[in-house]
Amino acid sequence: DAGVIQSPRHEVTEMGQEVTLRCKPISGHNSLFWYRQTMMRGLELLIYFNNNVPIDDSGMPEDRFSAKMPNASFSTLKIQPSEPRDSAVYFCASEQGTEQYFGPGTRLTVT
Amino acid sequence: AQSVTQLDSHVSVSEGTPVLLRCNYSSSYSPSLFWYVQHPNKGLQLLLKYTSAATLVKGINGFEAEFKKSETSFHLTKPSAHMSDAAEYFCVVISNPYGQNFVFGPGTRLSVLP
Description:
Largest sheet of chain B: 6 strands, mixed
Helix content of chain B: under 10%
Structural class of chain A: mainly beta
Number of helices of chain A: 0
Radius of gyration of chain A: 13 Å
Oligomer: heterodimer
């Protein structure tokens, strides 16, 4: 298996633009997680899905952030409109049992 | 509530000397504990995990961790540091009995000096 796949790997955008981050989990994994990593806050859980259903989105910072999982092999995290403080590395992870496997991350820079 | 404390934000060792990265946790349930490593500009990789089996857990790259319930600790060790071990290390506890919602520690940056 190729592991968790995220795209794009790097994204630079201007404030106010819509940003969409994508994730393909490992086949057969039932849970998917979105994290954000910054120097100030470390790793934060934003939202997670079980069998494509959002279970806990309490970590989503505000209404500008939304996540979907239309099927078992794809998820998106959207920021609209983006702001400079959204600059971070966003990780997607999928879970088998109690092990989470992380993707390589998307480095987002909002200018 | 569950939480993880990593007592050292930065640890520096010489190549060939032992590594000790400290982690203490609090959990309302019997915890599952993990150590992840993150190399610069890379994603997170699982080093090892404890899930209520043997208290001494062996992981990849020669790392070990020992679960000590009485001390609520899960320290990471390695007998001899290698230059390639320089990275950020995260201790993680699962925060509920259903196996989801990882709680990450703040991380410890390990530097290895030649």
